[in-house]
Design goal:
Elements lengths: L3 E5 L6 H11 L9 E5 L5 H8 L4 E5 L16 H6 L4 E4 L2 H6 L4 H13 L3 E6 L3 H5 L3 H16 L7 E4 L13 H18 L7 E5 L7 H5 L6 E4 L6 H10 L2
Parallel strand pairs: 1-2, 1-8, 2-3, 3-4, 4-5, 5-6, 6-7, 7-8
Helix pairs in contact: 1-2, 1-10, 5-7, 7-8
The chain binds phosphoenolpyruvate.
Phosphoenolpyruvate binds next to β8.
């Protein structure tokens, strides 16, 4: 399966910074052996739609509304994202679960909205440090994925899944390749029980992935790519992760 490397820019960037970063990223796309995307803040999607059209770098968003349209001040709908060439949308990132109280049900509905609009949701699951230490990792990620499976039925094979242990996000701590592979294997089995096309679902690892640890993580059987935060803001670091994905 072709790997997928996705940059999550979070709430970073500016018109000028984006122009410079994209120019650096697009310098040698012919060397890429994997699919690559960047998930930008909503106000910059128009800028990036223009600069990425026709390139090998796909565009993603970081969130979308659970509603289709209407009186939801501040929300951005799936249809609006689609108009700006958005191919992927992160849903259920731990920062949204934590700071915006997004429940498993909300995340599942957002995945449904994305799929209905022809956008591939990148569904994030992952345990906190307290949950890992209490031995609840499998239970937590299975519960989070189960909600998405329940709401999306056979369409589940159309999602991208990202395992992001919360304790590894932005902390410099990474799950070891074996720890990550174990959870990916559990998630794969859950997908297989839900869909006969589960093997086509790409399961990304996210959490302090960088140029130094990417190769060992991406060599694991069920790690099909990466969701990259901090290292996605520097072209050289991001491109060396892309180069490790083949
Ligand atoms: C993320 O935000 O999805 C992420 C993995 O961040 P970082 O790479 O900075 O840990």
């Amino acid at each position: 399966m072709k790997k997928l490397i996705v940059g999550n820019w979070k709430m970073n960037g500016s018109l000028d910074a984006n122009t410079a970063l994209v120019a650096a990223l697009l310098q040698d796309t012919q060397a890429w052996a994997c699919d690559v995307a960047v998930c930008a803040p909503a106000p910059y999607l128009a800028q990036l739609h223009t600069s990425l059209t026709g390139s090998r770098l796909d565009l993603g968003a970081q969130d979308l509304s659970v509603h289709e349209s209407g009186a939801y001040t501040g929300e951005v709908s799936a249809a609006m994202l689609k108009e700006f060439g958005v191919r992927y949308c992160i849903v259920g990132h731990s920062e949204r679960r934590q700071y915006h109280q997004e429940s498993d049900t909300t995340v599942a509905l957002k995945a449904q909205r994305a799929l209905a609009a022809g956008i591939t949701p990148i569904v994030c699951v992952g345990e906190t440090l307290a949950q890992r230490e209490a031995g609840q990792t499998e239970e937590v990620v299975k519960r989070q994925l189960a909600a998405v499976v329940h709401a999306n039925g056979h369409c589940i094979s159309e999602i991208v899944l990202a395992y992001e242990p919360v304790w590894a996000i932005g902390t410099g701590k990474t799950a070891s390749p074996e720890e990550a592979q174990h959870v990916h294997h559990v998630l794969r089995a859950q997908l297989q029980a839900a869909s006969q096309h589960a093997d086509r679902v790409r399961i990304l690892y996210g959490g302090s992935m960088n140029a130094g640890n990417a190769q060992a993580l991406l060599a694991q059987a069920d790690i099909d790519g990466g969701l990259i935060g901090g290292a996605a803001l520097q072209a050289a670091a991001f491109l060396s992760i892309v180069a490790a994905a083949h």
